[in-house]
Structure formats: C-alpha cells, structure tokens
Amino acid sequence: MIDIVPSDIEKIKDPENWILQKKVKYADVIETPDIPAKLEVRMMYIWKDGEARPKLAINLSRLSKGKMIGVRYNKDKEWVGGSVCYFER
C-alpha cells in the first residue's frame, strides 16, 4: 500500500503481521532519453566471525520512473530495471 491514510491503518485486523515504514522520496536525477529516473543501490555485506569489518559481497542497482521502485510500478516505462554497480578501489 502506498500513500496510506490513518483509516487504512485502522482497518488492519492483524497489525502484528504488518510493518509500517516511512516512504523514501527518491529524486529523479538519472538522465535517460525521455524523462529522468530514480536510482536505488542495495548492498549486501558478509561479516565473517573474527573479522574486524564486514565485506561487500554483492550489490543491486535499480532504475525506476514509477511511484515506487519495482517491476509493477514500471510496466509501461522505458530505461528502467536492475543491474550491478562497479566500485573503484
């Protein structure tokens, strides 16, 4: 559910099975041939026992032009989707 109102929360019969999160406002800053896109980068770290710090294992970058980042919000849009990011050492 996006853009919820208090009555939406009041209708929930099993609130212990729901998570209420504040929606992140992504900026449309990635230039594409038609309209700017939003970018989300997710990073997964692995922290082995005994190691001082976690290590980056993999990442996922996603471009979106919809209300949210995800396939169902970008069905009829171009220059959206997922990829991987490369970082300079």
Describe the structure concisely for a colleague:
The chain has 89 residues and is mostly beta strands. The chain has one helix at 6-10, and strands at residues 38-46, 55-64, 81-83.
Average pLDDT confidence is: 89
Q: Spatial order of the strands in the main sheet? A: 1-2-3
Q: Bin the helical content.
A: under 10%
Low-confidence stretches: none
Q: How widely separated are the two ends?
A: 39 Å
Shape annotation: flat
Query: What is the gyration radius calculated from CA atoms?
Result: 18 Å
List the topology elements.
Elements: H1 6-10, E1 38-46, E2 55-64, E3 81-83
Antiparallel strand pairs: 1-2, 2-3
Descriptive account of the structure:
With 89 residues, the chain is mostly beta strands. It has a domain at 26-83. It contains 1 helix and 3 strands, in the order αβββ. It has one helix spanning 6-10, and strands at residues 38-46, 55-64, 81-83. The model has no long low-confidence stretch (mean pLDDT 89).
